[in-house]
Amino acid sequence: MRIFAIFLINILLSLHLFASENKWEGMILKKMLQSIVKDRAVCIYTKDKSLQKEFSKTYRYHIVDECQGSDFVLLRSNEHNGSCYKPTIVFNYYDYLHMPTAIGVFFWQKGRPTIRFSKKRLNHFNLEVTGELSKFVSSGK
Predict the structure, then answer these.
(1) Structural domains of the chain in order of their starting residue, each with its CATH number
(2) What is the CA radius of gyration of the chain?
(3) 15, 31, 45, 89: which one has the fewest Cβ atoms less than 10 Å from its Cβ?
(4) Do residues 24 and 113 touch, judged by C-beta distance below 8 A?
């Protein structure tokens, strides 16, 4: 019985940490987008259900069903952007380096959030990162 209780507590803690990580991820992505668009409302396209749920909680972000109607795309590595040519935030560094529409990347490294923006790609889409996140803009890719 004691082993079962410990097992149950571990599962509950794991679920809580996973939910907490999703919440942090949503907050960081919102901050990334706010540093680009300032105070205007934006349309976001993503297939990720947890991101759709997180962004639908805020009036400033509208989730759209098709990429063509979006201002930004949030793309996981196992998804494909296809023919949609919109500014994209990806979730792994490889996609950031190799996807021409990837203006930024957000990923976890050693338990810490890592953010990068591409100055060249931001300029291509006539976008600019302002505020405290401007220090994460790289002049490389």
Answers:
(1) 2-138 (3.40.50)
(2) 17
(3) 15
(4) yes
Q: Is 66 exposed, middle or buried (0-12, 13-18, 19+ CB in 10 A)?
A: exposed
Helix (H) or strand (E) holding 75: strand 72-75
Where do we find the tokens 């400033």? 60
Distance (Å, whole) CA 63 – CA 56:
7
Strands 102-109 and 112-118 come out as: antiparallel
Q: How many Å apart are CA 96 and CA 88, to the nearest integer? A: 9
Helices (H) and strands (E) in the chain, counts: 4, 7
Locate 58 and state its tokens.
Answer: 């805020």
- Nearest alpha-carbon partner for 33 in 44, 21, 46, 20: 44
- Quote the CA–CA distance of 70 and 92 in Å, as a whole number: 21
Check if the beta carbon of residue 86 is closer than 8 Å to that of residue 71. yes
Pair of tokens at residue 73: 């795309």
